[in-house]
Amino acid sequence: MTTRISLALVTLTAMATLAGVAHATSTLDTVKQRGMLQCGVETSLPGFGIPDDKGNWTGLDVDTCRAVATAVFGDPTKVKFVPLTPKDRFTALQSGEIDMLSRDTTWTQSRQSAQGLLFTGVNYYDGQGFMVRKSLGVTSALKLNGASICVQQGSTSEQNLADYFQTHHMTFKPVNFDNADAIIKAYDSGRCDALTTDASGLASERLKLGNPADHIILPEIISKEPLGPSVRKGDDQWFDIVQWSLFAMIDAEELGVTQANVDTMMKSTNPAIKRLLGVEGDYGKTMGLTNDWAYNIIKKVGNYGEVFERNVGSGSPLKLKRGLNQLWNKGGILYAPPLD
Amino acid sequence: MNADVSRFVARDMAPARSPPVAAAGLWRWLRHNLFQNAASTFLTLTGLGFIALLAPPLWRFLVSDAVWHGGPSACVAASGACWTFIAQKLPFLTYGSYPEAQRWRVDVVVLAGFALIVWLLSPRLAHRNLAAGLFFVAFPVAALVLLHGAPALGLATIDTSLWGGIFVTLLLGLSGIVFSLPLGTALALARRSKLPLIRFAAALFIETVRGVPFITVLFLANFMLPLFVPVTWEPDRLLRPMIGTALFGAAYMAEVVRGGLQALPRGQTEAARALGLSPWASLRRVVLPQALTIVIPGIVNSFIGLFKDTTLVSIVGIFDFLGAAEAARADPKWQGPSIATTGYIFAALFYFCCCYAMSRWSQGLERRLRHGPET
Q1: What is the mean pLDDT of residues A100-114?
Q2: CA separation for the pair A20, A23 (Å, rounded)
Q3: B148 with B236, same domain?
Q4: Nearest residue on chain A to B224, alpha-carbon basis
Q5: How many domains in chain B?
Q6: What is the pLDDT of residues B69-110, one digit of tens each?
Q7: B23 is a domain residue
Q8: Scanning every residue of chain B, which has its alpha carbon at the shortest distance from the alpha carbon of A24?
Q9: Consecutive H or E run containing B55
């Protein structure tokens, strides 16, 4: 008996040591050694992460992964996309299977404190809304008392929904599903009166319905949903790289540096642009990257505005307005710290 | 006397006359099969009524109102199926994200696999033992090298995260089928073993795996495995459901094969041993051929179930055929009202063809084994 226990202990210790060793090496080194960034994305969410006709991944979250790969390798193709369901996204990050998560994930306190995640920023400010059939005659979410509502299981939407109805002393019947497709099918077939998810999701889900014009999105936005990339806790250097890859895209838009003009901008006299593009200073080196890291991101992926328009904005079928995701000096709340 | 008789006996055979109208031809067939009595007449008419009701709208949706050409805009207001969507998405539905320039590798593997299966299953072709060797040993290794890549041979490595579509469905189904039959047979024999430890271990495995839903097995394989092994091992995301499928299939197969073993009279084994055959030889030459023949319908039933169960892997983020169809359908570029329906009809057709082919083949095999020269 004792032998068996000690054998088990030895095995466990050995495994813990191995795991510890693996965690001790920096994520940047692991990524460089592998020659590939492993990035967790959604299985298929239009505009954010979805394979196109040729099987290439496209979307805002996908381009966020590409920006980080470009910062590290100077090559946006060096990403392995790992499609994850809402249930296994955190496990995949914790177990080290992915280096970063960029998958329509809301930044919340409990996720950061209890799940071992560190959110590096916000790449899309969203909020939860409702969609109903026009024929229902409902014009406000406050009139949904007693309604059956389709909602995604294990998401923040589920919690917000319960909170909202409780605050307003209303009741509802939740109809739960674990993926977005099942929810829209259930709603379309009449299993529930209303559908709730993030407003960006509602816009894309509406296109999937038999007759989009028969459905309206109610004006109430009942939650704050800052969506953004996250990394595992315990590797500050890697956190910096993922965080500043996004900030660089936002700063580039603010400074007017685009994919098209980035090469001429290299000759700019503006000190902020000089620092961003690595003409001046050692900003890349301090993160363990080359100094042209941000130049590469802008050249090969684009600035935030370009990525937004291409994937979810006017250049896409979703046609989402910039709204909150406009720069702070243009009426939105998008604000990246200066690269200095 | 002879002359007398010859006067009454016809010299030529009378020409054959056709049977009465009511007992032959189309009329008889109709009477016999469709209008034999009041109940069958009622059923026939109801059936015809249903066909008359369903056929025109189906024809309109699938053929006459369907969109056959054009891009996404052609399907926006389509009232019929959007076949152009399937045509445009077919590469993605077939290969997933496998790089375009390397797709010939998938084609080679699928064609080679198909050719080997035909060789293996056709009773008229020669050297079928060679085919079995190629199929069960050489083919999996060659397929793995070709699909995954070997930089030493000049084949670029294609990560399994890029694999998808019909090709992954076939891969999952085939690997499940190939591994579950031998594994299941071994488990069935182990469960009937005289050694308590082996018997207990086999029973424990079978009952545990059969006692939980397939989804649970997949989730366990997907979420728990990476937490228990060191980060550096990291079992491949496609390999996990493949292992899960094979083990799950094996547990069910074991019970099917055990049914066949139990149906066989003890006398068969005893006679084989009395003739001086070793336990292994009596098992291989006498017991298993008969036991497996008895349960062919059950085995193929398990195969078909397993093949369809592979669709569940899409819930752990694998783009199998159905997962790829779902992703294709979610593409915001394609917004027609019939996009989803078209996708599902195409998926249903694909699965039906595969399963029906398996079913037909098993019926043919049963007939051959029952009436063939072997028995």
Answers
A1: 92
A2: 5
A3: no
A4: A91
A5: 2
A6: 888 888 877 788 999 999 999 999 999 999 989 999 999 999
A7: no
A8: B231
A9: helix B38-59
Contact criterion met (CB below 8 Å) for A70 and A301? yes
pLDDT at residue A38 tops 70: yes
3-state helix, strand, coil split of chain A in percent (to 5) is 45, 15, 40
Set of chain A residues whose Cβ sits within 8 Å of the Cβ of B228: 15
Kindly determine whether residue A181 and residue B326, on different chains, have CB atoms separated by under 8 Å: yes
Give first-to-last CA distance, chain A, whole Å.
63
- What homologous superfamily does CATH list for A13-125+227-330? Periplasmic binding protein-like II (3.40.190.10)
Q: Which of chain B's residues have a Cβ under 8 Å away from the Cβ of A211?
A: 337
Name the residue facing B91 among A47, A54, A83 (closest C-beta).
A54
What pLDDT was estimated at residue A208?
Answer: 75
CB contact under 8 A, B337 and A85: no
B163 and chain A in contact, CB less than 8 A: no
ipTM surpasses 0.85: no
Polymer length of chain A: 340
Nearest to B333 by CA among A138, A59, A131, A111: A59
State whether residue B95 sits within 8 Å of chain A by CB: yes
Q: Which domain holds residue B226?
A: 177-371
pLDDT at residue A10, as a whole number: 44
Q: What residue in A sits closest to B226 (Cα-Cα)? A: A95
Determine whether the interchain pair A46/B91 forms a contact, defined as Cβ–Cβ distance below 8 Å: no
Q: Does B91 touch chain A (CB under 8 A)?
A: yes
Task: Measure the N-to-C terminal CA separation of chain B; round to a whole number of Å.
Answer: 57
A260 pLDDT exceeds 50?
yes
pTM over 0.90: no
Q: State the architecture of A128-223 in CATH terms.
A: 3-Layer(aba) Sandwich (3.40)
Q: CA-to-CA distance for B29 and B37, rounded, in angstroms?
A: 13
User: CB under 8 Å, gap of 24 or more: what pairs does A314-321 form?
Assistant: A316/A47, A316/B332, A317/A46, A317/A207, A317/B332, A317/B333, A317/B335, A318/A46, A318/A47, A318/A200, A318/A203, A318/A204, A318/A207, A318/B332, A319/A203, A320/A47, A320/A200, A320/A203
Between positions 317 and 346 of B, the ones with CB within 8 A of A are 317-319, 323-324, 326-327, 329-333, 335, 337, 340
Q: A204, B226: Cβ pair inside 8 Å? A: no
pLDDT mean over A265-288: 94
| Nearest-CB residue to B327 (from A51, A204, A317) | A51
Residue range A110-131, pLDDT digits in tens:
999 988 899 999 999 999 999 9
